[in-house]
C-alpha cells in the first residue's frame, strides 16, 4: 500500500524540497500575509502573530503522518524558504492523492513552482507508486493552470461557483495526471531536469 512514511529531500536546479519543520511556521505566515497568495489559494481569513505557536505545532507534527507529505520549497540561490508543496488526501486503496502548492512572491515567476511540481510528481509516481494525482485551480489563476498543463496535468471538469471571494463567485477547475501520462511527459525535453533530480 502506498504511503508517505518517507520524508524525502528532492533537489532540483533552482529549488530544493525538504520536509517541513516547526520553524517554517514563521516563514509560512509571511507567505500567507500576501493577499494575492490568499486569493490564489482561496484561503479565507487572516493570520496574526498569535497563530505562530499553533502553526509551529502543526508543522512540527508533519513527520508523524503517513497519509500526507508536506515539503518546504527552498530557493536554491538564496537558501530562503519560499513556500510549500503538499501531497495530501492519500487514498491508498485507489493509489491516488491530491496536490497543492503555495509560493510567496519571492518564489514566483522564476520557474521554481514548475520545477517543484515536477520533482514531487516524479517522487510520487516513481518512488511511492501512485496512479493518480489531482488538484483544483480557480478559474482566475491562469498562471498556475499553465504550469499544471506544462507538467502534464489534464483538465477533468469544473466545480461551479466553488469559491466566494469578495462578493464574487469563481469556478474551480479539476485537473489530474495519471502515472502513464507522467511517464510519457518525462520523455519530453522540458522534463529532463526533473529526471536528473528525482
From TrEMBL:
It is an enzyme of class 2 (transferase). This is GNAT family N-acetyltransferase. Residues 15-180 form the N-acetyltransferase domain. Keywords: Acyltransferase, Transferase. Its EC number is 2.3.-.-. InterPro entries: Acyl_CoA_acyltransferase, GNAT_dom. GO terms for molecular function: acyltransferase activity. Pfam families: Acetyltransf_3 (PF13302).
Amino acid at each position: 500500500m502506498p504511503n508517505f512514511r518517507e520524508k524525502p529531500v528532492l533537489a532540483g536546479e533552482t529549488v530544493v524540497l525538504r520536509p517541513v519543520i516547526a520553524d517554517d511556521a514563521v516563514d509560512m505566515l509571511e507567505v500567507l500575509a500576501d493577499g494575492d497568495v490568499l486569493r490564489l489559494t482561496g484561503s479565507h481569513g487572516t493570520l496574526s502573530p498569535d497563530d505562530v505557536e499553533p502553526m509551529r505545532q502543526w508543522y512540527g507534527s508533519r513527520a508523524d503522518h503517513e497519509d500526507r507529505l508536506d515539503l518546504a520549497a527552498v530557493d536554491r540561490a538564496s537558501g530562503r524558504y519560499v513556500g510549500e508543496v503538499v501531497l495530501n488526501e492519500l487514498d491508498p486503496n485507489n493509489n491516488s492523492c491530491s496536490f497543492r502548492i503555495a509560493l510567496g512572491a519571492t518564489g514566483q515567476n522564476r520557474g521554481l513552482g514548475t520545477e517543484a511540481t515536477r520533482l514531487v510528481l516524479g517522487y510520487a509516481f516513481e518512488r511511492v507508486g501512485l496512479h493518480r494525482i489531482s488538484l483544483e485551480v480557480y478559474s482566475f489563476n491562469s498562471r498556475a493552470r499553465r504550469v499544471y498543463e506544462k507538467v502534464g496535468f489534464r483538465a477533468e471538469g469544473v466545480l461551479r461557483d466553488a469559491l466566494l471571494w469578495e462578493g464574487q463567485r469563481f469556478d474551480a477547475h479539476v485537473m489530474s495526471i495519471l502515472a502513464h501520462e507522467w511517464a510519457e511527459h518525462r520523455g519530453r525535453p522540458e522534463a529532463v531536469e526533473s529526471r536528473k533530480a528525482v
